[in-house]
């Protein structure tokens, strides 16, 4: 399941619409933005992990209380939810400048006010974070990190996955995570923006 499909399942299929309503966006605009931003978030997480930041990505998914951001659009759109989503984005993208640039480009390409996109992006990221957490509970994340340490390091495991193999320990869960991060294989139309910041 891709991140976009995950979001489309939030709150019985109503999550994106409810998030849009919380932030003053119409459903069509929210869907257009999500189609750009959801795979961009996945691409950023995958790239960050493949460049040695897998522990940070996994660490950002720990905390089962985050699932409420997926289950309740009001929580994801709240100041607390947007702050959490912004922290998640900054970990993936490398800082506030990259996050702002992503919002600016999404606003330009969609014809949406940048101020609205700047609120929607972190709220959407919080919802993504909560949805990934629901699919990878803390016990699985801890197992992946422990298995990586026992088997020559997390990047050894990820190297196998990137090459099409599964690690002996925790590989199934990591494979599941990376499939979600890039199921469609074609990334996001915003990937060109991401490449400027993720190196």
What does this structure look like?
With 199 residues, the chain is mainly alpha-helical. The chain has a domain at 3-137. The protein has helices at residues 3-9, 15-23, 27-61, 67-71, 73-77, 79-93, 96-110, 114-135, 138-150, 154-162, 171-181, 191-194. The radius of gyration is 16 Å and the shape is globular.
Determine Rg (CA atoms, Å): 16 Å
Number of strands: 0
Estimate percent helicity: over 70%
Euclidean distance between termini CA atoms: 27 Å
- Rough shape? globular
Strand content: under 5%
Q: Quick summary of this structure?
A:
With 199 residues, the protein is mainly alpha-helical. It has 12 helices and no strands. Mean pLDDT is 78; it is low at 149-170.
Structural key phrases:
12 helices; 199 residues; mainly alpha; single chain
Secondary-structure topology with pairs:
Layout: H1 3-9, H2 15-23, H3 27-61, H4 67-71, H5 73-77, H6 79-93, H7 96-110, H8 114-135, H9 138-150, H10 154-162, H11 171-181, H12 191-194
Helix pairs in contact: 2-3, 2-8, 3-6, 3-7, 3-8, 3-10, 6-8, 7-8, 9-10
